[in-house]
Amino acid sequence: MRNFKKDNYIQKNTNKPVETKFTVKEETELLVFLLRNINKSRNDVKVLLRDKHIFVEGRAVTQFNHILKAGQSVEIKWKKAPEEQKQKGLSIVFEDQYLIVIEKQEGVLSIATEKQKDNNAYSTLSAYVKRQNPANRIFIVHRLDRETSGLMIFAKSEKVQKLLQESWNETIEERTYLAVTEGSVENDEGTVVSYLVESKALVVYSSPNPALGQKAITHYEVLRRSSKYSLVKFNLETGRKNQIRVHAKDMKHPIVGDAKYGAISNPINRLGLHAWVLSFKHPITKEDLRYETEVPSKFMKLFD
């Protein structure tokens, strides 16, 4: 039996629906609900979620495993509103009155530098929120390297920024990265522990001496191998500058495209590092939020 009541399509001088509305009849996951009730493939539904076409009780939801309750409304807006379009160099994965989660493209700075003031994630998001209200501001919580793609959190107030930064280790439940490394990594999984030190030339390196640097712990698991490359999942127990890049070098398998840390190949014309999964407890609502991005297609082509 179908578990929804379907309202009439909202038409706009066309035979194609602009919006489709449902009423949930029993508790279920959002992805399961959508697959049952619209004629779209699993991948198509995930794209609709990613691009913020799906609204639950009037709020855009991107999590495929969001739990629907009986009586809630689910709305599909087939055509995105102008303000929901992708921003330059990034896309918004989640937004509420307290924070924004984005997926940053490779080659985009997290924040301005002395040499480059514009065209960074911070300035792009700042312009975006100011279009809604000139008094709005954005606050950086953490950073990704310019050539690393993937998930980042920005706060909408100093209070939320401070809450996230001061309770980072307790708030962040999972930070998972995907990397393409040179060579076939020998062990299926393992842990790298060292003390990271930054040189005067701004190159980070590992030391066994706890008096010299900050303790860094990285767990890894090999997902795929070829004769030339490995697809490796990295989980951060600590979040130090260039931590994964340095530890990949320590493993004798530097990340492709990372000449700074020993790579000699660049088969995908970018750094092979992507912030894949981000799971955290919302600092205000205390809701558990989890976001997972698509694996970059360039990564997977090396293992076809």
Describe it:
Helices cover 18% and strands 34% of the residues. The strands form three sheets. Strands 8, 9, 10, 11, 12, 13, 14, 15, 16, 17 and 18 form an eleven-stranded mixed β-sheet that branches. A five-stranded antiparallel β-sheet has the order 1-2-7-4-5, with no helix packed on it. By secondary structure, it is of the alpha+beta class. It folds into three domains: 74 residues, Structural Genomics Hypothetical 15.5 Kd Protein In mrcA-pckA Intergenic Region, Chain A (Roll), CATH 3.10.290.10; 81 residues, Pseudouridine synthase (2-Layer Sandwich), CATH 3.30.2350.10; 134 residues, 2-Layer Sandwich (Pseudouridine synthase). The N terminus is likely disordered. The two termini are 40 Å apart.
Q: Report the uncertain regions.
A: 1-15
Count the domains. 3
Number of strands: 18
Shape: globular
CATH architecture of the largest domain: 2-Layer Sandwich
N-to-C order of helices and strands: EEEHHEEEEEEHEEHHEEEEEHEEH
CATH class of the largest domain: Alpha Beta
Radius of gyration: 21 Å
The residue fraction in helices comes out at 10-25%
Secondary structural class: alpha+beta
User: Average pLDDT, to the nearest integer?
Assistant: 88
Strand content: 25-35%
Largest sheet: 11 strands, mixed
And the CATH topology of the largest domain?
A: Pseudouridine synthase
